[in-house]
Write a structure and sequence with these properties.
The chain has 19 helices and 18 strands. The protein is an alpha/beta fold and 477 residues long. The protein has two domains: 258 residues, Rossmann fold (3-Layer(aba) Sandwich), CATH 3.40.50.2000; 186 residues, Glycogen Phosphorylase B (Rossmann fold, 3-Layer(aba) Sandwich), CATH 3.40.50. The strands form three sheets. The protein has a nine-stranded mixed sheet with strand order 3-4-5-2-1-6-7-11-12, sandwiched between helices. Helix 4 packs parallel to helix 6, helix 5 crosses helix 7 and helix 11 packs across helix 14. It is globular. The mean pLDDT is 97. The chain binds adenosine-5'-diphosphate. GO terms for molecular function: alpha-1,4-glucan glucosyltransferase (ADP-glucose donor) activity; alpha-1,4-glucan glucosyltransferase (UDP-glucose donor) activity. It is an enzyme of class 2 (transferase). Its EC number is 2.4.1.21. This is Glycogen synthase. Pfam families: Glyco_transf_5, Glycos_transf_1.
Length: 477
């Protein structure tokens, strides 16, 4: 039987480029597919920030030009193999030779270019995919263009689109993009209150839409979560499915992670050594007994920082230490800095994006706080659990699908959770967690073990994706 050919189009993949969970997913999901049945390849922008250790071995395989408005833009296709997966990088100095991945005035144009360049790369890489799997708004013009302009070129290619976060949709005025879109009409599939919504176009034109957890797939049909597209999600529910993300258990492994002070398996003593080493490293009082609560996150409204702000003084009345690592909105950065300044012996705030330090914190902490307002899947809680760190989360999206309240009687469950987006509900839940930590250390150990044994292996998700790829291409036997 021929292998199923899948091309992932995305704008991040760890270890080349990552700004959040999307980078983790694209960096680890392709490896999890069965090699005898599939040929999965990935196409990405070639950013300036890709580490030199990889970039130096990229091989230029072809060059062509793509129309962006009236100009012809250069596309250099470079290739790199890693862990049995082929990666293609689209090189264009003007669009991607910049320090950051996103956040430029012309992001719309940059990703219009990327989408068109992906579609036109196919003959040059000579890989005609059965499935073109596009991720998030930056790649969302691809399914639309595939249907509107390229269908005769790629008759056997189906489009699958994954929503990793509905909050970011690629919303632009038609006048802002019409000069670069190369469409001579206003595309109805993308119309959103007289603007262009790139993600909406992908939702209507893809053959299959997935989101990254079953609960989020349901929630998106509700106006509270749908970010204005809940009606579209209800419309397309017949072709929508939620597939839970996994984590790369070889990357996130407390036994082998080189970032840790002390590697450990399920040894609580060694985990505590990581805590005391981190306390020392960060200048907190060194005390193995005090529970450490951590947050590693983008500092944005989504992550529940308003709840934290509302009760942070009450949280810090408990005998705990708190470590926050993140970057994001100035209001949250300042609030967290100020609180840490007020409680220097209890809390530390590090405004940085730091992979190495994040691993040290996951390993050192006793609890990981993630009170998200919404959470498409969430990887941080899974990573925390992998390091034996107990999650305290709000029951939404992927957090609801992965964290189950610990029941003291049956000793089942892997964390703590609360349902309503309410600061005091979060506070009481944290107090309960801290209470269990101090009062019932044996039960706490059971809970840590349960958390670390939770199974988030990508293989399960990859099998589900494969089932749907086969279904959408008519290859299900
Ligand atoms: P999202 O994709 O919404 O940001 P996820 O929980 O799905 O949230 O993924 C976040 C990923 O980014 C995790 O791997 C987390 O460890 C990492 N991360 C977030 N903030 C930082 C930071 N300041 N430094 C290092 N890693 C971070």
């Amino acid at each position: 039987m021929d292998k199923l050919k899948v091309l992932f189009a995305a704008t991040e993949a760890y270890p080349f480029a990552k700004s959040g969970g999307l980078g983790d997913v694209i960096g680890s999901l392709p490896k999890a597919f069965p090699k005898d049945q599939t040929d999965i390849r990935v196409i990405l922008p070639k950013y300036a920030s890709i580490p030199e250790e990889y970039k130096k071995d990229f091989k230029l395989i072809d060059i062509f030009y793509v129309k962006v408005g009236l100009s012809d833009q250069y596309v250099g296709i470079q290739q790199y193999e890693m862990d049995g997966v082929t990666y293609y990088f689209l090189d264009n100095e003007y669009y991607f030779n910049r320090p950051n991945l996103y956040g430029y005035y012309d992001d719309g144009e940059r990703f219009v270019y990327f989408c068109r360049a992906v579609l036109e790369s196919i003959p040059y890489i000579d890989f005609y995919p059965d499935v073109l799997h596009c991720h998030d708004w930056q790649a969302s013009l691809i399914p639309f263009l595939l249907k509107e302009q390229y269908q005769w070129h790629y008759l056997n290619t189906k489009a699958v689109f994954t929503i990793h976060n509905m909050k970011y949709q690629g919303l632009y005025g038609f006048d802002d993009l019409k000069g670069v879109l190369n469409l001579d009409y206003f595309p109805a599939a993308m119309e959103f209150y007289r603007k262009l919504n790139l993600m909406k176009g992908a939702l209507y034109t893809s053959d299959l839409v997935t989101t990254v957890s079953p609960t989020y797939a349901e929630e998106l049909k509700d106006p509270y979560y749908g970010e204005g597209l809940d009606g579209v999600m209800r419309d397309i529910s017949y072709k929508t499915v939620g597939i839970l993300n996994g984590i790369d258990e070889t990357v996130y492994n407390p036994q082998t992670d080189p970032a840790l002070f002390v590697p450990y398996t399920r040894s609580y003593k060694k985990k505590t050594e990581n805590k005391t080493a981190l306390q020392d490293y960060l200048g907190l009082p060194v005390n193995p007994k005090v529970p450490m609560i951590s947050m590693i996150t983008r500092l944005v409204e989504q992550k529940g920082l308003d709840l934290v702000a509302a009760v942070i003084h009450e949280i810090l009345q408990m005998n705990i230490q708190m470590v926050v690592l993140g970057t994001g909105d100035a209001q949250y950065e300042n609030m967290l800095r100020e609180v840490a300044y007020t409680y220097p012996d209890k809390m530390i705030t590090i405004i940085d994006f730091n992979e190495d330090l994040s691993r040290k914190i996951y390993a050192a902490s006793d609890m990981f706080l993630m009170p998200s307002k919404f959470e498409p899947c969430g990887l941080s809680q899974m990573i925390a659990m992998r390091y034996g760190t107990v999650p305290v989360v709000r029951e939404t999206g992927g957090l609801k699908d992965t964290v189950h309240y610990f029941d003291k009687e049956t000793k089942e469950g892997n964390g703590f959770s609360f349902a309503t987006y309410n600061a005091h509900d979060m506070l009481f839940t944290l107090q309960r967690a801290v209470g269990l930590y101090y009062d019932e250390p044996e039960l706490w150990k059971t809970l840590m073990t349960n958390a670390s044994k939770s199974n988030f292996d990508w293989k399960i998700s990859a099998e589900t994706y494969l089932y749907y790829y086969k279904k959408v291409t008519g290859k299900l036997s």
